[in-house]
Specification:
binds zinc ion; about 70% helix; about 160 residues
């Protein structure tokens, strides 16, 4: 059950992110949403995040079934997404992103900061797409070596690694 939810979690999370972007850009709409609904949305997002992690640990038959026949062709169209996925291996990059995230959240109350915050929220949605694309098409990711294991130090190509 949890795995099924986990499989569809990115799509549901995208829905939540899209809702948040709308609520950010249209404050009048935000006024219409009572706080318990916002709280439910937030709780839902956290639960989906947890099921997403649970899903990722195991091989999911739905993912395999959803793989396109021409996966390597499809993967070649997503080079940017693969690149972005690997940017997040850098702690400095993650830190920078978190700073931007927090900063724009703090500015979200101001009229101009609202647009910045909406853009950052939209980037979260994009990152979800990046995550899903990379997870499903990882064997074809040009930045993953050794057929899938994430690399710790991507700067120098390491000799044949023995861990699986
Ligand atoms: Zn799946
Ligand atoms: Zn990769």
């Amino acid at each position: 059950m949890g795995r099924i939810v986990g499989h569809y979690a990115p799509r549901l999370l995208l829905g939540i992110v899209a809702t948040l972007v709308v609520l950010t850009l249209v404050p009048a709409a935000a006024d219409l949403v009572p706080w318990p609904a916002s709280l439910a949305l937030l709780t839902g997002a956290v639960l989906l995040g947890v099921s997403l992690v649970a899903h990722n640990r195991r091989l999911c038959e739905r993912c395999i079934a959803a793989l396109p026949l021409d996966a390597s062709m499809v993967a070649s169209r997503y080079r940017v997404r693969f690149r972005v996925a690997h940017l997040f291996e850098s702690r400095l990059f993650v830190l920078g992103y978190l700073i931007v995230l927090t900063g724009s959240a703090l500015l979200s109350a101001s009229p101009l900061g609202r647009y910045l915050w909406a853009a950052v929220e939209a980037s979260l949605g994009y990152l979800l797409l990046v995550y899903v694309t990379h997870q499903r098409l990882q064997p074809w990711c040009p930045y993953c070596r050794n057929g899938g294991e994430e690399q710790r130090a991507p700067t120098t190509p390491s000799p044949v690694s023995t861990h699986i």
